[in-house]
Design brief:
The protein is mainly alpha-helical. The chain is globular. Helix content is 73%, strand content 0%. The protein starts with 16 loop residues before the first helix and ends with a helix. Helix 11 packs antiparallel against helix 15 and helix 11 runs parallel beside helix 16.
Length: 454
Amino acid sequence: MQSTSARLPGESRPISTAVIAAGMVLSGMGTTILGPILPLLAAHWHLRDSQSGLLLTAEFLGLSIGSIAIARSLRLSLLLGIGAATAGFGALARLTRPSANFFAVLPGASPADHASLYHAASFNGLPAGNLLAGLAVLFCAGFGLGLLITSNNLIAGERYRSRPGPPLTLLNFGWSLGAVLSPLLVAALTPAYSVATLLASLATAFLLLGLAASFDLRLQHAADHEPAPDRDSNTSPSDLPSDAPSDARNTAPPSDRKTSPSATPNPAPAGVSPRVLLLFAALFFLYGGVESSLNGWLTTYTLRYGRHSLSGSQSTTLLFWIALTAGRALSALVLIRIAERPLLLGSLSLAVLATSGLIFAHTLGAISLCAVLLGLSLAPCFPATLALMLEQCPRPRQAALALAVTGLGGAALTAMMGETSSRTGSLQVALLLPLAGTLALLALYLRPPWSRQQ
């Protein structure tokens, strides 16, 4: 990747904002859909928590590698990401196609009743306990999501380089909106439809997005190759439309244009020191681990300790993402008035308290309250950290590498939580890991080395 400009090499028109926004919403849905259905898959495949964690790890590992594999053309990265996500979720839908609708939720039934129903059902083509195919397709889906999310964030960062905080926060609001829709649709539709149907619908949505992006590319390619109309020599730049291309508004002779400051391309970013890059990589790693582990295990945790039905347990994940989405919309307004670092210090302090409360919560109401507080407190962390990094003017490859470890954090911490829970027999003990991650984030923001570098 050598350029992250909104205008790609050889192209004169920016990437469609509608495609970017739709891609962020769908990527939010794809990233978070595994958490609400994880108890269903674990019950049917008779998985231990350590094995369930591997499913989450596969998706986030793919997401991390996809974040690194950005092509020279960001539009090409978008198309590749959409294609990989379509293939991954489509294949997962095929693998999880049930012979009976064992995902149906019985109204008023206990978790034990649900487990009996899930154990009695069977998958076509995927024997119980054989997770290799499932891990492979989840990796493919995560790879596509990584390409899509990173491309969109880098495009927005370049487009609004002077003050990237609020635009990036609004862009990630779209991702959060998709993350809200995912558990909401799972909880609402599983009583009537199988998870295979939901996954197939998600794959279809990615396919339609890919068709829309391809159609947009063809339209812009045709517009770029339209012959320029003849202009009267007496036409002044002020007579041209305000949205006319810059070449049409420049009436200076070619010899003058070569030395015109407006014709000089923007200089490449100077890059950041290895120390600062390592710090931002650590911040993204820790944040990715904290958010992914909470999202991935919250439904299972509520089902186990909240002593409630599956639909009620899924509602806590929904509340988490609703709070995170609302928090990002609010953060975009707050960042107009204050800097990123004070907001992050306050929000992470609240996140430490909320995670500590979640460890000791034993009712659905208490767990739901902690989920809301966690969503609100974590909301500004990713977009504000990304804005702080872009303000240091990293090279595109440096930015992509730092963003890539977000998925590595999610892969590592979700697997560690599953392993810890299996060894100790307690998800409450495993929650000490995201608590430690939140404390580490807070400590790094107390004395950031990039402020001393400046």
